[in-house]
Specification:
The complex is a heterodimer of chains A (about 230) and B (about 220). Chain A is α/β, with parallel strands linked by helices. Chain A has six helices and eleven strands. In chain A, the strands form two sheets. In chain A, strands 1, 2, 3, 4, 8, 9, 10 and 11 form an eight-stranded mixed β-sheet that branches. A three-stranded antiparallel β-sheet of chain A has the order 5-7-6. Chain B is built from four helices and 14 strands. Classes of the chains: A alpha/beta (about 230), B alpha/beta (about 220).
């Protein structure tokens, strides 16, 4: 049980309890929503043998790219590595085990864990290699593939604003996988640019209610990492 | 003179109907963004969680929290919304996206599409392509008619692992506009100055060509 009034941590303490070999969800689609500061703290903290669950592998030298390059990641569950050639090289050289899922199925598997379900039924990928070996069940006269929920020990998420109870608000396309992961893991560690007192966030603008969140860390805005790759106009 | 790519994009822009919700796949289709006039009431969906993207204008400062699925910094137009990945893919799976444009390694006479994996050579993962291909109401493929070695990309039957089967409605290349029909590919338009026999020679799939009704582009 995490008590409401005991959630604010400094960043080193927030990640220190993540065990060796943990399964860790990491928010973000590309740079927006990636909890860069928490990832850096995890790198400094030294845990290895990690299984990461993230939409993508960021880019070489930033975000989870750093954890992969440092050899801390045993396995990555993801939808696409296209922007990270060093992750592709690690995969091709056998240093990184990668499980690919179609992006929407990855999101839904995480959402299911967050909703307390065991999985869901889908027709996505039927007739393609994605569905090979997938169990099927017939419902209403149609075959459906069974997709189990995807759980994790820890989720690292990024929010624009939080309060010290752990209520979270995301901004623009930095939302992506964050609200799903913030419900799905046993321990949810959130970083936010702004940390307010309870009552200061507009109650009807809160995306993740504090009940799901274990720890909150305030971080500085705009690490230099968002500017590493010159994104197109 | 316009390049092949510009001709494909200019022709593709004519597929978009005002009022539609449209997704632009990564690569060539992303560039279609710049062919949709500001005043056209179209909402561009990007699967990372935004409906109503528009390109950033020259000199407009980037918002680091606002990208499209290709990683470009974008902005939004009036009527836009942002949401999480589960909502974004619910929109796709429920066929609330009217039209999507995608690139192709191979596309075939039955409307099968292969655009995510070349075994042993290229396998960065499928991203959102499978769900988009399978569920968006209308899928238009934009690609070069032949690969850089001159081999046909419009095949009788795809050989690479499929993204989705029977998902393609129309194919626009530098050489032709082709519709997928129950009896195979029907050529709707052919490139200015190209002989129908030469088009067929550059294509592995058998083409239905009715010269009396053939448009030029």
């Amino acid at each position: 049980m995490t008590l409401l009034n005991q959630k604010v941590f400094d960043i080193e303490a927030a990640v220190a309890a993540i065990p060796e070999g943990a399964t860790v969800m990491v928010g973000g689609f590309g740079s927006p929503g990636t909890p860069f500061a928490l990832i850096d703290a995890l790198l400094a903290s030294g845990q290895s043998g990690l299984t990461l669950i993230k939409n993508d592998a960021n880019e070489p030298g930033i975000g989870i790219g750093k954890l992969i390059e440092a050899g801390r990641v045993k396995r990555l569950v993801t939808s696409h590595l296209g922007l990270n050639r060093t992750a592709i090289e690690a995969m091709n050289a056998g240093r990184l085990e990668v499980s690919f899922h179609p992006q929407g199925l990855l999101a839904e598997k995480i959402r299911c864990a967050g909703a307390g379900h065991g999985g869901f039924l889908t027709d996505i990928g039927q007739g393609t290699e994605i569905a090979e070996g997938r169990r099927e069940v017939e419902v209403d006269g149609r075959p459906w593939g069974i997709e189990p929920a995807l759980h994790a020990d820890v989720a690292l998420v990024h929010a624009e604003r939080a309060d010290r109870y752990g209520n979270l608000i995301y901004r623009a396309t930095a939302s992506n996988f964050n609200p799903l992961m913030a419900m799905a893991a046993e321990q949810v560690i959130a970083q936010a640019y702004r940390l307010d007192a309870p009552g200061e966030l507009p109650i009807d603008a809160i995306h993740t209610p504090c009940a799901f969140v274990s720890r909150v860390v305030q971080v500085d805005r705009a690490t230099s990492e968002q500017g590493v790759r010159p994104h197109g106009l | 003179m316009a390049s092949d790519t510009q001709r494909i994009l200019a022709r593709a822009a004519r597929e978009v109907i005002p009022g539609q919700i449209v997704n632009l796949g990564i690569g060539l289709p992303t560039r279609l963004f710049h062919y949709l006039p500001d005043e056209m009431e179209v909402l561009v969906h990007s699967e990372n969680g935004v409906l109503g993207c528009r390109p950033r204008r020259e000199g407009e400062a980037p918002d680091h929290d606002m990208i499209d699925s290709g990683g470009a910094y974008i902005t939004t137009r009036p009527g836009a919304s942002v949401f999480d990945s589960a909502t974004s893919f619910a929109m796709i799976r429920r066929s609330r996206v009217d039209l999507t444009f995608m690139g192709a390694f191979e596309v075939d006479a039955a409307g099968n599409l292969a655009n995510w994996k070349i075994p042993g050579k290229f396998s960065p993962g499928i991203g959102g392509a499978m769900e988009l291909a399978q569920k968006v109401r209308r899928l238009v493929v934009l690609c070069s008619h032949n690969d850089k070695h001159g081999n046909p990309k419009i095949l009788a039957r795809c050989r690479l692992p499929l993204t989705a089967s029977g998902c393609v409605s129309r194919i626009i290349t530098d050489k032709a506009v082709m519709d997928v029909t129950p009896t195979g590919l029907a050529v709707v338009e052919i490139a200015e100055g190209l002989d129908p026999a030469d088009l067929q020679a550059a294509t592995e799939a058998p083409l239905h060509i009715d010269e009396s009704r053939l448009g030029r582009f």
